[in-house]
């Protein structure tokens, strides 16, 4: 219900010519640790998340943080780093659900099949897969490819698993044909899918721009979306990442929280984390403090052509398309 209320209030703000500021969801980076070394991993400044050694909250503090977030939004995206590296992940997810939040787990999935309590407490599992070929996947992720085993487990046990399953892929200049194969897999197994282009810093990899193979791939994704397959992302987003056109970015729709509880303002890519949400005790109070320290929102152009930024902003601005999208996130 909070999601719907915030969405409506944001639409009223947009119609009035104001910035939409009500959070649709929180993205909580429970850790920056990772057991892979993905080529495209970037925190917005060109560094890998694992290079940013931020202290993680202990379990009780993390649960208190989640409780604070639950008063301002009823959807929680848990990500990293690799969130599965936290031994208390199931406990954090369970607490979020107990607090009335819908839980989204973003993961590479290595070993997820051995953690049934994590699966049980994840309303949506977004598993990152960039190739279905084990060798190619190892090249792209710089490590083990056993998350293909996890994907197989999730697909083969869908009758027992209540979670929605979404495959997330990052399009790089070297894996475009791999993603075409993933699309066929998604259709075959009736899964949902979303895509983001590789970002270098905050801009798309220049090798994707005016790349006929990449444009053909996005055209195919658009065709499948029109056909009714489970492609996430409103059509305006898919067109924007095809041509890398300017689009809106409303970062406050998805506040990002660092492993230590600090609130990034206005977004992770800007790197300001002056205010700790756990210490403030209230999201809107923390945001006011962050705005006083960080100043007004920047006017970004031609940046962050990714699902969680531009995709979410266009989702907010196109309510009819957003209604059609919602079915893919239901269990």
Number of strands: 12
Our estimate of the beta-strand percent is 15-25%
Structural class computed from helices and strand pairing: alpha/beta
CATH homologous superfamily heading: Aldolase class I
Shape: globular
C-alpha end-to-end distance: 17 Å
What is the CATH architecture term?
Alpha-Beta Barrel
Instruction: Enumerate the strands of the largest sheet in spatial order, edge to edge or round the barrel.
Output: 9-6-5-4-3-2-1-10
> Radius of gyration over alpha carbons?
19 Å
Describe the overall structure:
This protein is α/β, with parallel strands linked by helices and 331 residues long. The chain has one domain: Aldolase class I (TIM Barrel). It has helices at residues 2-15, 59-70, 89-98, 116-120, 134-141, 147-156, 176-189, 212-226, 235-243, 277-280, 283-294, 307-317, 319-325, and strands spanning 26-29, 75-79, 102-107, 124-128, 164-171, 192-197, 199-200, 203-204, 230-231, 256-257, 262-265, 272-276. It has an 8-stranded parallel β-sheet. Strands 7-8 form a two-stranded antiparallel sheet. Strands 11-12 form a two-stranded antiparallel sheet. α7 (176-189) links the parallel β5 (164-171) and β6 (192-197). The longest helix is centred in the middle third of the chain and has 15 residues, at 212-226.
């Amino acid at each position: 219900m909070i999601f719907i209320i915030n969405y409506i209030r944001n639409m009223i703000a947009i119609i009035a010519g104001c910035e939409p500021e009500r959070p649709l969801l929180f993205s909580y980076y429970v850790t920056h640790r990772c057991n892979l070394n993905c080529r495209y991993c970037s925190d917005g400044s060109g560094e890998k998340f694992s290079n940013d050694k931020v202290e993680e909250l202990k379990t009780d503090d993390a649960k208190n943080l989640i409780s604070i977030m639950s008063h301002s939004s009823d959807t929680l995206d848990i990500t990293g780093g690799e969130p599965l590296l936290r031994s208390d992940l199931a406990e954090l997810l369970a607490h979020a659900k107990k607090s009335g939040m819908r839980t989204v787990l973003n993961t590479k999935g290595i070993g997820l099949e051995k953690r049934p309590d994590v699966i049980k407490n994840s309303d949506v599992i977004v598993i990152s897969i960039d190739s279905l070929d084990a060798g190619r996947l190892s090249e792209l992720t710089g490590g083990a490819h056993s998350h293909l085993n996890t994907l197989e487990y999730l697909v083969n046990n869908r009758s027992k698993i209540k979670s929605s399953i979404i495959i997330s892929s990052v399009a790089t200049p070297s894996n475009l044909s791999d993603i075409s194969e993933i699309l066929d897999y998604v259709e075959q197994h009736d899964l949902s899918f979303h895509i983001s282009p590789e970002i270098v810093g905050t801009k798309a990899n220049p090798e994707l721009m005016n790349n006929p193979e990449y444009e053909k791939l996005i055209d195919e994704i658009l065709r499948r979306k029109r056909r009714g397959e489970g492609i996430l992302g409103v059509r305006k987003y898919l067109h924007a990442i095809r041509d890398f056109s300017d689009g809106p970015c409303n970062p406050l729709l998805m506040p990002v929280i660092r492993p230590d509880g600090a609130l990034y303002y206005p977004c992770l890519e800007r790197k300001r984390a002056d205010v700790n949400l756990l210490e403030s005790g209230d999201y809107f109070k923390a945001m006011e403090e962050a705005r006083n320290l960080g100043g007004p929102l920047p006017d970004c152009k031609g940046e962050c052509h990714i699902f969680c930024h531009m995709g979410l902003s266009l989702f907010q601005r196109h309510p009819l398309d957003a209604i059609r999208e919602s079915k893919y996130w239901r269990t």
